[in-house]
């Protein structure tokens, strides 16, 4: 068995294991379908090469038309809690099925699939953008469920694709990357699918997808106006409750939590917070946390505490989130403020 055949077989096996894991653990049916498509693609390549099938029997080009919709359905499931695959999504298989039935010669399947791929990528980008904007409106720990890692994975896939295209287009200049280069591409794709499965498990565990109620509340907050008198009156009441009960100390504080404690629905609370604070729900809550950290920095009784201990006590659940929000709010790193606060305490002593 050749190197490429062995790598394709191992990649198909690993992708099949990922498919079973994602389905049995009910993590992401959409990512499971994407892994299944990759596994079937590897097996189809292997059968075509080993059996030396004629060109008219080769259906491997159809698999390239599955990755665009597969990516879109995967990201849609990460962004929206109710967006699970249904029978209506079978329409996304039509281009691939058409290629299997008609079997046009290359490069027609690739040329026909390019505008479809662009469309799916645009839809994916818009979904990720909306998730990022609206998550800030309904969760204080939006950094924890951020989907920036999906963008990083996408750039990695693009880099792999560019390398593979260069290897195929200039075989003479990159002869050293012939079989070894293709094997490297398949290993890299398999590794990326594994990373996606791992990160998706964490995202599902943290309930990072937006619920229908969260979508409605987030959109209402994003559309609120600072001159809304009713919203401003509600914010004065809500802000008093949040500060008096120190609700910001809860690391996973959500808009729904405040709506339940303060009374009212999430849509109205979202409008009130945005109108009264001039920013998103996340910015409002994390601003209160940073104020608390600054107050603890200046307290002589807390001189022995570490900066991270103060951040966790104020409600932050990760060092990276604390550093990012502090720089955004204060324009400098928290360690610099911490050092200056220590110097001020020593000067007062």
From TrEMBL:
Protein name, UniProt field: AraC-like DNA-binding protein
InterPro entries in the cross-refs: HTH_AraC
Organism from which the protein derives: Maricaulis maris
Region of interest: Disordered: 330-349
Residues annotated as domain HTH araC/xylS-type: 239-340
Pfam families reported for this sequence: HTH_18
GO molecular function: DNA-binding transcription factor activity; sequence-specific DNA binding
The entry's keywords: DNA-binding, Membrane, Transmembrane, Transmembrane helix
UniProt keyword Transmembrane helix present: yes
Spans through the membrane: 6-24, 31-47, 59-75, 149-168, 180-198
């Amino acid at each position: 068995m050749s190197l490429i055949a062995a790598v394709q077989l191992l990649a198909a096996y690993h992708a099949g294991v990922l498919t079973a894991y994602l389905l049995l653990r009910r993590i992401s049916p959409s990512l499971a379908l994407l892994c299944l498509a990759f596994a079937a693609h590897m097996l189809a390549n292997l059968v075509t090469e080993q059996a030396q099938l004629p060109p008219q029997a080769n259906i491997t080009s159809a698999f390239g038309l599955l990755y665009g919709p597969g990516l879109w359905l995967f990201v849609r499931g990460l962004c929206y809690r109710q967006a699970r695959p249904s029978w209506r999504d079978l329409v996304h298989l039509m281009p691939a099925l058409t290629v299997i039935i008609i079997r046009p010669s290359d490069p027609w399947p690739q040329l026909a699939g390019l505008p479809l791929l662009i469309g799916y990528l645009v839809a994916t980008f818009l979904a990720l953008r909306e998730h990022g904007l609206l998550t800030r409106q309904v969760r204080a720990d939006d950094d924890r469920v951020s989907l920036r890692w999906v963008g990083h994975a996408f750039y990695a896939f693009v880099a792999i694709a560019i390398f593979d295209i260069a290897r195929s287009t200039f075989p003479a200049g990159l002869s050293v990357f012939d079989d070894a280069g293709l094997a490297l591409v398949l290993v890299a794709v398999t590794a990326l699918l594994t990373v996606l499965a791992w990160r998706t498990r964490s995202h599902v565990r943290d309930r990072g997808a937006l619920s229908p109620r969260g979508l409605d509340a987030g959109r209402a907050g994003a559309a609120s106006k600072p001159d809304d008198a009713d919203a401003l009156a509600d914010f004065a009441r809500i802000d008093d409750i949040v500060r008096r009960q120190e609700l910001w100390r809860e690391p996973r504080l959500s808009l729904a939590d405040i709506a339940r404690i303060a009374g009212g629905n999430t849509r109205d609370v979202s409008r009130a917070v945005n109108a009264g604070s001039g920013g998103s729900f996340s910015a409002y809550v994390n601003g209160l946390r940073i104020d608390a950290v600054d107050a603890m920095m200046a307290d002589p009784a807390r001189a022995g505490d570490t900066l991270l201990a103060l951040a966790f006590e104020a409600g932050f659940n990760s060092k990276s989130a604390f550093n990012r929000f502090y720089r955004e709010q204060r324009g400098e790193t928290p360690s610099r403020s911490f050092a200056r606060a220590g110097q001020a305490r020593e000067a007062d002593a």
